[in-house]
User: What shape does this take?
Amino acid sequence: MSLVTLALAGGFALILIGLYGALNNRNILRIIIAFTLANTGVHLVLVAVGYMPGRTAPILDAAVPVNQANALIIDPVPQALVLTAIVIGLGVTALMLAYALRLFASRHTLDISKFTELKW
Amino acid sequence: MINRLLTVAFLAGLAVIFIQLLSGYVPDTDLNLTASYYASQTAPDLGAQNVVTGIIVTYRGLDTLGEVTVLFLTAAIVALVLVHGRAIETERGPKPFPAGELLQTGSHLLAPMILLLGIYVFVNGHLTPGGGFQGGAIVASAVLLLLLTDPMRRFSHRLISRIESTAGLLFVAIGLLGLLFAGGFLDARFLPQGWFGALFSAGAIPLIYSLIGLKVGAEFSSMLLSLSETEDEK
Assistant: This one.
């Protein structure tokens, strides 16, 4: 089992664990944590897809002469995308936490089954 | 019960898809067309050592501007959603148990160093792994440490929002300078490229990434402060 498959498998497993937790928990804080887990799994999968065996990080220092960059560095695009995704994920988590605080203030509970206004 | 069964069935289906993806996966041996353009052109075009920074700040600069806007919106919405709770925070109610000597001394020792590390990370974003977003997060972690030590501590919201809005305005202004003096909006090449690998090199990239770092640090700090200053209605 190579490093890439291991990272991919770990990422997929994190996504599944996170979704299971988000769908099966009643406590809003646990749901938020589960979403964060799934989010991390997606990041791991994306970074692993950009990895290529035997190559190095996309930084052109002494180890990577500029004219050989094409043959020596891994794909920089997924890394840039994941950087964006991490930041947006943090924003989403902060929003979820703020709403959870408001929900707790209005109902004094974090049990999602007590919030039934949108249920049919 | 039926819900749990449905969940497990759904996740099992997803797992089958993932296993299919995983079993047929072979890592690429060559960079694809986009990646190889970035790999070969970042150094001669932009003079940045860190290819990822070149992509984020220049090639996809507009994307980054949008990302920073999303963060700003998040910070604004968090403050808006929590603003009702903030009116209650007064001196009434029991004071929280004071932090121990170790935590207080440690945080006062560490906070300036964490700030310095954050600034180092975003100033060197074009040379080493790191950049504005990472550095901004490190800067905000110093604020978090101070808040953990003393939950009643108050930071100046006005200062934070000044830093945030000034950095945002300058970011857009530099983008417009790129439009006027170089190839397009957010083009960093209107400043000289300098020595490849020096701190002052790569055109306006270090400038833009430092502004992003300040903006992100201020936004994260304001989110932390909003969350920390909200108290339960008694």
About this structure: The first helix of chain B runs from residue 2 to 23. Residues 50-88+100-229 of chain B form one domain. Chain B has a mean pLDDT of 82.
